[in-house]
What we know:
The protein is about 65% helix and about 5% strand.
Amino acid sequence: MIDKKTHGIVIPVMFLICIGILMVYSSTSLMSTEKYDSAFRYLWRHLFTIIIGFIVMFSLAEMDYHKLRVFVIPLLVFSVILLILVFVPGVGVSAGAGSGVKRWIKLWPSTFQPSELVKVSVVLFLADYMDKNEWRMKNPKYGIIIPFCVVAVFQAIILLQPDFGAVMSLAILTVILLFLGGVRWRYLSALVLLSVPVIIKLVWTVPYRKDRLIFFLHPDKDALGKGFQLVQSFIAFGRGGIKGVGIGASKQKLFYLPELHTDFVFSIIGEELGLIGVSAVLALFIWFFVKGMKIAAKTEDSFGYYLATGLTMMIVTQGLINFAVSIGLMPTKGLPLPFISYGGSALFINMAAVGILINIQKTLNAKQWVVDRVHYPRRTGNR
């Protein structure tokens, strides 16, 4: 179970989950009443995901993280299968009628987004791969070509859904981990530069992505159309001010701000809890980041170091992107705010990641206990 020395990573997560429960109810109660004639429908689903998430989190916290290496290849294969199932009629679920966007598969009583599992699969694969090939990561073949070919398979399938945000998240996460794994910076820089024309083409040749970029730069040009969501997000933050309008008093949730319980829940936090609430959420993510990186830094084996770093960066990077999108620093990406947004797949996967981090921390604590017992044995008998 959780001990005192793992509280550092658990406490910020618990606070964020509690804030999420509060904000999910506040942002969905009216919508839930209109749609299901019950103000609690979305909240019950969210709580169900949290319960399952806790079960998985505590289970992984008790499982030696080294045993996860056995599941690297099976998990990669399973992730590919789930991604393909998204396109199977009757199994895959569209975002909306005629949208052409398929990112989920049906799972009672909700849906599951395979691209969220892919992030953990890729982190686990890279941690295992870099540990086994640590001495030759400076070689372009092993440091760049092989890992990026594996990641590119997932990116290609996800791009067909389409989910450009998930593709970019995987790319950022991979570059960070490979850099920490010892890949020469000049190789990574060359790869990034070569990727720029591809990214531009993928954005500029797809109308809705192009529109997102244009109206991200100038949302006021079509404030009632394609720039509507970002403008309404700005209004939410503006109304919140320093102290906020109070929990439940948001006006933007009155069907003004789209996706307010998922991608733009941070905007509702800004409106109802103000700058104080926003700062508190940011502080909790910083707390989580610091504790996660401390766990990584203290881990003696390379696999644990890469795994802890990758899982921490996976969660924090997604949080930073969500913050940036909500305040207009990045185009809309469709990424939920970890532990807070209505969940779903992301909440479940992030809680599972925290379970692994807890286990790495507990392993460190156990090793330290052994060291203390060897050097400072407890006195018994004669004093």
